Amino acid sequence: MTAIRRSPPSRMHAVLARWLLACALCAAFAAQAAAIVVRDDRGARVELPAPPRRIVSLLPSLTESVCALGACERLVGVDRFSNHPASVRRLPQLGGLEDAQIERVVALRPDLVLLAPSARAIDRLEGLGLKVLVLESRDHADVKRTLDLLATALDAAPQAAEVWARIEREQRDAVARVPARWQGRSVYFEVDGAPYAAGATSFIGETLQQLGLVNIAPPPLGPFPKLNPEYVVRAQPDLVIAQKSSVAEMPRRPGWAGLHALQHGAVCAYAPAAYELLIRPGPRMGEAARTLADCLAALPADALAPGAASTASTRNAAGAAASATR
Known about the structure:
Elements lengths: L8 H26 L1 E4 L5 E4 L6 E3 L2 H9 L6 E4 L23 H6 L4 E4 L6 H6 L4 E3 L5 H15 L2 H21 L8 E7 L3 E2 L5 H8 L3 E2 L13 H7 L3 E5 H6 L10 H5 L2 E4 L1 H8 L5 H14 L28
Parallel strand pairs: 3-4, 3-5, 5-6, 7-9, 7-10, 10-11
Antiparallel strand pairs: 1-2, 7-8
Helix pairs in contact: 5-6, 6-12, 11-12
């Protein structure tokens, strides 16, 4: 019988070791290729081994964005203010920017937590080993960027393109609805009764500009400035936009009863649900533009005060911008 030649054991072990090493390297390269890397608004590099399946969102606009990208079923918890779409109201509510319920978040075993830069829980959640993605939208460009970053994390790039195309389509439709008489008219949009305004550089301000309105809070004041109440009185905006409850108490503020917009009914006053739509920078931004345009179209022609200036510049921006916040 012919003898069978066998490789020495040491040689066989070396071949096997090289084969195993090659397999391990291939697996490592494959895993690295499949990893998702996103750089968030802190500049932090967030690496995900795969698209997240269990997401906690602690900001309403991010909750809405996740759902708009077709990933609503991946949400396992939200902040107390997330209420759209209706399905998220059934999810565990985990606090807010200042009081996120850390233990409950961890217990949900999320593979990604979405937060705003101002959230107090960022460091603690990361310290507990959770993946945290920090995002903020101040203007229209930020909204698009946030959608794109979320889409990268969720592996939903086509959906992001569709959402943004819909926003732009709705914005164009809104512009077409605005009556010519409102073009170039000045506007005060109140986000808080302090009073804080939505300035020209905010996402709200950019929408107002698209609709042909001129913001009484110019760009140097920033996106959401706290105004001197007298500044608003001097500005005499042609249009006031705010929550219904805020509009109801405006005449009681010193000097505000003399605002022509309040006297002539040039006011868009919104119930809480509609107002939330206007102040959330996310996938419903086009719908918000249409809501504002519909209000302008519904206001009677005599809502403009007699002799109202056609541009805010004729009022010298109600005085120097430097005095606006004093």
